[in-house]
Amino acid sequence: MAVRSANRHRYPILQKLLVIPNEAQRNEESHEFEQILKKQFISSPFQFTRFVIFLITIKFLIMKKSFYILFLIPLLLSCTNSGKKDANGKYVSPRVKKEVLALATNYINGKFKEPKKTVSKDGIITVGEDQSSYVIDPAKIYTGLIDDDNTEDAIISMDYYHGQYIVMSEHLILINTDGKLILSRAIESDMRILGIKDRVITAEIYTKSRNSPLANCSLCKEVVKYRFKSGDLIKVE
Q1: Would strands 116-119 and 125-129 be described as parallel, antiparallel, or unpaired?
Q2: Among 85, 119, 121, 184, which is least packed by CB within 10 angstroms?
Q3: Distance from C-alpha of 167 to C-alpha of 189, rounded to nearest angstrom
Q4: What is the pTM of this model?
Q5: How would you classify the pairing of strands 132-144 and 221-229?
Q6: Beta-sheet strand order (sheet of 192-197)
Q7: Mind listing the pLDDT tens digit for each residue in 187-232?
Q8: Distance (Å, rounded) from C-alpha 168 to C-alpha 134?
Q9: How far is CA 166 from CA 135, 187, 194, 210, in A?
């Protein structure tokens, strides 16, 4: 009942729609309600999806004059956002995710003569041969503005293993060119990408070598900021 009451209080016109007996008048009020929803919901691809699902639900609600469907709205909205965020917590479309993973896989394939690929249930890709392999984790995709234009670019971080041990990490910088992501630079570094914002890449680097006993100590890490200029990461002081 709390969900029903909250929605009726937030959208008083919704309560009005549910009790209008005249179909023509109800359709007119429904159009007004649609305009209110558009202003509140549509500002991103994800929100557009939410809006469509919500609108269909409301249409059904008006036709059937039933309240129980309101309880399904939170469930429907949560399902539309499943697995569609990057490591920054930002929305990333399935198309971009697929494009990034394809570029990373093709890049790694070129490092082996006869690469073998496996994909786990949670989407983690492993490519390699013998004792050497790269692990491509979709959770390590970062999106944001990197170069000087206003189209979103991406970075994906991958780990290189020999046996069960991580040897190094590699980061692919993917620049959006004419609507398509292009591999601009591959960087071997033990840094851990923290995020991309305002064309600044924030990363955590280790001040000790990976083989040092102090490699993972909390005092042996430093947060640095970079800008990507002319194919290189330039440290921001």
Answers
A1: antiparallel
A2: 121
A3: 10
A4: 0.64
A5: unpaired
A6: 192-197, 200-206, 221-229, 232-235
A7: 999 899 999 999 999 999 888 776 777 777 777 889 999 999 988 9
A8: 10
A9: 10, 16, 19, 9
* pLDDT band (50, 70, 90) for residue 2: very low
152's tokens: 């979103």
* Mean local confidence (pLDDT), 13-32: 51
CA-CA distance, 136 to 80, in Å (whole number)?
Answer: 24
- Reported residue count of the chain is 237
Closest CA to 170 of 192, 195, 153, 152: 192
CA dist., res. 70 & res. 9, Å (int): 13
Dist. CA 38–CA 28, nearest whole Å: 16
How far apart, in whole angstroms, are the C-alpha atoms of residue 38 and residue 134? 44
Q: How deeply is 174 buried, as exposed, middle or buried, from its count of CB atoms within 10 A (0-12, 13-18, 19+)?
A: buried
Euclidean distance between CA atoms 41 and 72, whole angstroms: 18
Reduce the DSSP state of residue 171 to 3 states and report it: strand
The residue assigned the tokens 């059937």 is 64
Q: Please state, in angstroms and as integers, the Cα–Cα distance from residue 39 to each residue in 16, 70, 77, 175, 236, following that order.
A: 20, 20, 17, 32, 39
